[in-house]
Amino acid sequence: MSVPISAYLTLAAVLFGLGTVGVLITRNIIVLFMCIELMLNAANMALIAFSRALNVMDGHVMVFLVMTVAAAEAAVGLGMIITIHRNRETINIDRFDLMKW
Amino acid sequence: MTIDAVIFVISAVVAIFGAAMMIAQRNPVASVLYLILSLIAQAVIYVQLGALFVGIMLVIVYAGAIMVLFLFVIMLLNLRGSEELGKPSGRVSRFTKYVITLLFFVELIFVIRGVALPPAPELVTNQPDAFGSVKAVSMLLFTKYLYPFQLTGVLMLIAVVGAVVIARREHPGELPDDTAAESTLAETPKEGTKA
Amino acid sequence: MADYLFLIPLLPLIGFLINGLLIGRLPKPVISLVGCLSVGGALLLALLAFFELKGLPVEARVMQQVLFAWIPSGSFHVDIAFLLDPLSAVMILVVTGVGFLIHVYSVGYMHHDEGYGRYFAYLNLFTFSMLMLVLANNFLLMFVGWEGVGLCSYLLIGFWFEKKSASDAGKKAFIVNRIGDFGFLLGMFIIFWQVGSLDFATVMEKAPTAFSFGGGLITAACLLLFVGAIGKSAQIPLFVWLPDAMEGPTPVSALIHAATMVTAGVYMVVRSNVLYMMAPDALLVVAIIGAATALFAATIGLVQNDIKRVLAYSTVSQLGYMFLACGVAAFSAGIFHLMTHAFFKALLFLGAGSVIHAMSGEQDIRKMGGLRKYIRITYLTFLLATLAIAGIPGMSGFFSKDEILWQAFSSGHGSPIFWAIGLVTALLTTFYMFRLVYLTFHGTERMDTETKHHLHESPRSMTVPLMILGVLSVVGGWVGLPAVFGATNYFEHWLDPVTAKGSELVSESVHASGGGNAGLEMTLMFVTVLLVIGAWMLARYMYVRHTETATRVREKAGGLYTVLLNKYYIDEIYGFLIVRPFVGLSTFFWKIIDVLVIDGFVNGLARLGALSSDLLRFVQTGRVRSYATLFAAGVVLVIGFLILR
């Protein structure tokens, strides 16, 4: 095997960092949501890489579970976005300040 | 450079490119499409790592179903990327955020460098219960991880019910709803005249 | 062999649970069946246990059943365990026997009451608590029963809680009892501190070595335990709750006065007789308080006009007798009197209940008279009980009282003064009891025509217990015939295993009633009987033959009479000396300490919180992105810390 595991881990770190930047700077809530999905997938990639390195498949199962949670999260989160958009007519994250003070 | 390395480099570049473009886009539809691109590139890397089943799941479930859900919502809300998103954050705040992320990234790399992993054994792919195959993962899923697996089922059920409850209109057919519908009807001709 | 001991208290508990949990859902016959059968079953088991114990050789007459460890905490270990020895055997027989009769009586007496189910539930709980008290094998479990009877007395005295006087009386009983309980607890602490155990057997075993004979600690422990007994058994100065306990239903009074509750103090003193034998000073205090209470309460009883109140003071007085016996180290005599007293006092109260029942609720003996024609059974049984309590020869009270008087005179701890006080009390008792009988059942009929029209004998469920108790009042004393008659005092020998250990401790013999003094004993007994009959005749003269004499005596002794009628103003004195300062102190604590200091502190904290959150809330911008940024910064810091560590 020619590509070292650390390369895969580094790729995961890069993707995770991109996801973090996205979450921090984007003002569109749907993009923000997608950035979270990206971060989840970066973590998944690290899991897969470790699985491969240690020759166990438990990581695969974890990835599977993470995907399930992501799907559930997407369903609920998008539902919330629809509701908020219906009430506030915006997808600007900075205007979602219901919990202010 | 072996063929493995070539495949890895190409996939990695595509995945990073897709992720970066997703963030940079103004139009959410384009963002979704770039994310799908990134995910497919990641799936290639999954398969390269021997995670055949999970990689396929990623394409089918993630890139397929979940991203379509995003697209669907974007369409439903009729977003075209021209929405008022307010002022972009100030330069200082933006800079701070980049710095934080960079620090985070450096720390991650530092951690990765510190990990000592044994050299991975060679992959055997021509058997039905090989590493990462459907059979092998399912065996784990239905024996050792049966209980968490069952719980995800419950989680999904709760998510479905929750999504329905959240997205549902409070009192369908009642007065506020009707007035809202009337107002949109009343606005439609105006838009028409504008156009 | 003692596997079923736990069932004796358990059965009433089950009865309580059934009746208590299903209040208002059971028909009355089922309630009475559950209530009576549970106690009846306990009675049968108690008899069984008694005969099994009797079958054992004298020195082996102890049955223990350890159910489970209750508080296993290091060196402090307490079991839920039951102990059956001759003493507790007598007690469970009295409690279940008299208790059962009272339950049966209540079926008739309480038949029209709204709270029928509640009443029987409390009654069963009362029996359960008392059985726990007498069957416990350690001080702590005994204390559980001790508190249990306190609680039940509160519940039952205040049974008709809509009546203010009843709920007040309940509270009074509870609070006064609590004062005593405090002493009991402290005494328990001293015992545990010195002996390292609360188990009766261990304490009695080790006490002679753990304490020095007559030392300060043992005296303190005994006196503190006795404070508990004072509260529970209504002695001076804590007797005030018992007369007020009349506010409860009459069978409850019978239960409290005869079978349960007030006897607990006597039982406890006898149970720890080894400790008391080690502390002669404490014994003397017991004797003095007992004698003083006996005389004091008897004088009050002379002039009371409420039928139940007379009986209440009579109980206080008789309890004083029992403590007098304990105080002169005649423990078996004390328990003997406890038993006979249980019979005739229960009978007196139940009879009084029957009278009140017949009189449509009237309790004032000045409005009665001539009742013997209308309620014959009640009259005859009441008369039997009166003869018994007066100590007419042949009746149960005669033997037990005589035993106490003789011991007070002759015991190593006794003195002729105690004997004299006992004798005067006996005369007073005879007088006021016959006064009660004559005013109630003889002479002119002073009730109004309406009441007279309704006069009727009580139903069978009430008269049958009366008759059984009547028989017991007569024959109950025959188990303890004095040795001077040439008979064997079965009762005293029965209790020997319990009291022997204590009497070994002191050099002079406690049982001084040896043959050498037989002549003296006979003489004293003869004098007593003569005087008692004289007191009877005096009562007869004053209240039947020449009723105007009573009025004249009353007018002559005007001031004294008023003082007695008002019970020496004890309640008022307590109110002035104790209650008022307490109210003042409590008001101070309430207005100053509580409202200003404690509340001020708490409210100040709340205001501080409000103030600081007013300042801090500006951190909460409500912007998701700034939260996320802070979050990410936090993650960076944590990971950085973990790396650099």
Largest interface: A-B, 73 and 89 residues
Assembly state? heterotrimer
- What gross morphology of chain C would you assign? globular
- Spans of at least 5 consecutive residues with low confidence of chain C: 507-516
Secondary structure blueprint with pairings:
The complex is a heterotrimer of chains A (101), B (195) and C (645).
Chain A: H1 5-25, H2 29-54, H3 58-88
Helix pairs in contact in A: 1-2, 2-3
Chain B: H1 3-24, H2 28-48, H3 52-77, H4 91-114, H5 134-142, H6 146-167, H7 175-194
Helix pairs in contact in B: 1-2, 2-3
Chain C: H1 7-21, H2 28-55, E1 63-73, E2 76-84, H3 86-109, H4 116-135, H5 139-157, H6 164-195, H7 200-210, H8 216-232, H9 241-244, H10 250-259, H11 263-271, H12 273-277, H13 280-301, H14 307-327, H15 331-358, H16 376-390, H17 396-410, H18 416-441, H19 449-454, H20 460-475, H21 490-505, H22 518-545, H23 547-556, H24 558-565, H25 570-616, H26 624-644
Antiparallel strand pairs in C: 1-2
Task: Walk me through this protein's architecture.
The complex is a heterotrimer of chains A (101), B (195) and C (645). Chain A has one domain (5-95): Orthogonal Bundle (Helix Hairpins), CATH 1.10.287. In chain A, 77% of the residues lie in helices and 0% in strands. Chain A is built from three helices and no strands. Chain A has helices at 5-25, 29-54, 58-88. In chain A, helix 1 runs antiparallel to helix 2 (29-54) and helix 2 (29-54) runs antiparallel to helix 3 (58-88). The termini of chain A are far apart. With 195 residues, chain B is an all-alpha fold. Chain B contains seven helices and no strands. The longest helix of chain B has 26 residues, at 52-77. The termini of chain B are far apart. With 645 residues, chain C is mainly alpha-helical. Chain C contains 26 helices and two strands. Among the domains of chain C are: 327-503 and 516-545, no CATH class; 572-644. Chain C has a two-stranded antiparallel sheet. In chain C, strand 1 (63-73) and strand 2 (76-84) form a beta hairpin. Chain C is globular. The longest helix of chain C is centred in the C-terminal third of the chain and has 47 residues, at 570-616. Chains A and B meet through helix 1, helix 2 and helix 3 of A and helix 1, helix 2, helix 3, helix 4 and helix 5 of B.
